[in-house]
Design the sequence.
C-alpha cells in the first residue's frame, strides 16, 4: 500500500498502460483522477470503484493547457492536493515516413505526446511541491531512444519526452519533486491492437517481440509496475532518468544473437 491516501493523476487512463497503472495505484490505496479523451476514462473509474478503490473520471485533451489545469484542479479539490502525476497519454500518429509526414501531422503528434507532458510538469510540479515531496512519471518509448520503433514524428516526440524528464528534474532542483520516464517496448494495448490481432489470427505470435531477448511483447501491467515504482518512495533517489522497459531490445546493437544453451553453428 505505497500510495495510501495519495492524490494521483493518470492521463491516457482509459486504456492500455494508463488503465493498468490507474488500477494498480488504486489497489495500493491511491485516490486516482482518471483522465482520458474517451469514455474509457469512465470505464476505468468504474473498474476502480468496483474493486473498492477511489477514482474520479475526467474527459480531457491532455495536449490542451486549460484541460491540464482543469485536471489538476479536480485532483486538488477532490483529494486535497496532488502527489503524483503520470503523464502517459499518447498517440502513434500512424506510420507515415518522413516524406509523407506533413506539418499538420507532426504538429499534432508533438502537441499530444510532447507538449502534453510539458504542460503536465509545468502545472503539476508546483502543486506536488506543496506536499513536500512527490513524483512525475512520463511515458516516452524505445522509439525515443533511436530509430526503428515508430514514425519520425512519433520518435521525435518521444525523444523529446526523454529529454524533458532530464531537464525538468534539473529545473526542479530543491523542490523534492522527482521526474522520470518509462520507455516501453512493444506492449499489447489499444495502440498496438492491430499488430497483436494480426499475429494471433495468422498464428504468428512467435514473431511478436522476437527482436528482444525475451522473445515476446509486454503486457500493460509490466509497464504500469515500473511507473508505480518510479512514482513511489521506493524510487526516492531515482531522478531525471528514462528507464527502458523493453525486454532488453534497446540494450544491444543489431546483431545475430546466439540462443542461450545452444552452441554456434
Ligand atoms: N503500446 C506500446 O507498444 C507502446 C510503446 C511505447 C510507448 N507507448 C506509449 O504508452 C502510452 C500509452 O499508450 P498505450 O500503449 O497504453 O495505448 P492506448 O491507445 O491503449 O492508450 C492510450 C490512451 O491515451 C488516450 N489519449 C490519446 N490522446 C489523448 C489526448 N490528447 N488526451 C487525453 N487522452 C488521450 C487514448 O484515448 C487512450 O485511452 C502512450 O504515450 C504511448 O505512446 C506505447
Sequence:
Amino acid at each position: 500500500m505505497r500510495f495510501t491516501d495519495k492524490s494521483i493523476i493518470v492521463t491516457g487512463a482509459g486504456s492500455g498502460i494508463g488503465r493498468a497503472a490507474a488500477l494498480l495505484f488504486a489497489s495500493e490505496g491511491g485516490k486516482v483522477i482518471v483522465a482520458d479523451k474517451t469514455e474509457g476514462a469512465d470505464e476505468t473509474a468504474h473498474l476502480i470503484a468496483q474493486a473498492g478503490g477511489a477514482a474520479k473520471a475526467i474527459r480531457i485533451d491532455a495536449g490542451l493547457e486549460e484541460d491540464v489545469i482543469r485536471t489538476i484542479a479536480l485532483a486538488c479539490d477532490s483529494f486535497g492536493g496532488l502527489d503524483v502525476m503520470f503523464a502517459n497519454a499518447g498517440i502513434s500518429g500512424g506510420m507515415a515516413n518522413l516524406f509523407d509526414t506533413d506539418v499538420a501531422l507532426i504538429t499534432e503528434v508533438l502537441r499530444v505526446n510532447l507538449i502534453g507532458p510539458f504542460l503536465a510538469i509545468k502545472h503539476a510540479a508546483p502543486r506536488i511541491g506543496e506536499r513536500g515531496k512527490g513524483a512525475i512519471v512520463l511515458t516516452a518509448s524505445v522509439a525515443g531512444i533511436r530509430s526503428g520503433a515508430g514514425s519520425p514524428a512519433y520518435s521525435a516526440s518521444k525523444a523529446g519526452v526523454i529529454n524533458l524528464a532530464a531537464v525538468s528534474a534539473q529545473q526542479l532542483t530543491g523542490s523534492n519533486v522527482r521526474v522520470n520516464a518509462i520507455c516501453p517496448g512493444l506492449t499489447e494495448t489499444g495502440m498496438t491492437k492491430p499488430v497483436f490481432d494480426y499475429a494471433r489470427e495468422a498464428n504468428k505470435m512467435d514473431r511478436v517481440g522476437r527482436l528482444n531477448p525475451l522473445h515476446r511483447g509486454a503486457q500493460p501491467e509490466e509497464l504500469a509496475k515500473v511507473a508505480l515504482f518510479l512514482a513511489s518512495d521506493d524510487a526516492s533517489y531515482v531522478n531525471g532518468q528514462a528507464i527502458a522497459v523493453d525486454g532488453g531490445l534497446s540494450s544491444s546493437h543489431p546483431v545475430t544473437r546466439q540462443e542461450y544453451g545452444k552452441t554456434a553453428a
Observations:
- The radius of gyration is 18 Å.
- The pocket of nicotinamide-adenine-dinucleotide is lined by residues 11-12, 14-18, 36-38, 40, 60-63, 88-91, 112, 139, 141, 184, 186-187, 189-192, 220 (CB under 6 Å).
- The chain has a mean pLDDT of 97.
